[in-house]
Write a structure and sequence with these properties.
Length: 57
């Protein structure tokens, strides 16, 4: 699954995300929150792109 996200994400963002995943901050959930926010924004952009493409036809 992670390979699929890597293929969908820009290269700069991939390296930053990998660094964040491998940091050991105990029970700090900020890394998880950033990842969720990143995915949420990605999903939002994909949905908007699909809706615009649908109405432009």
């Amino acid at each position: 699954m992670e390979k699929r996200y890597e293929a969908m994400s820009p290269k700069e963002q991939q390296s930053k995300q990998k660094e964040e995943f491998f940091e050991d901050d105990g029970l700090d959930f900020s890394i998880l929150e950033k990842r969720i926010e990143s995915l949420t924004n990605e999903y939002k952009e994909n949905i908007l792109r699909a809706v615009k493409a649908f109405y432009e036809k």
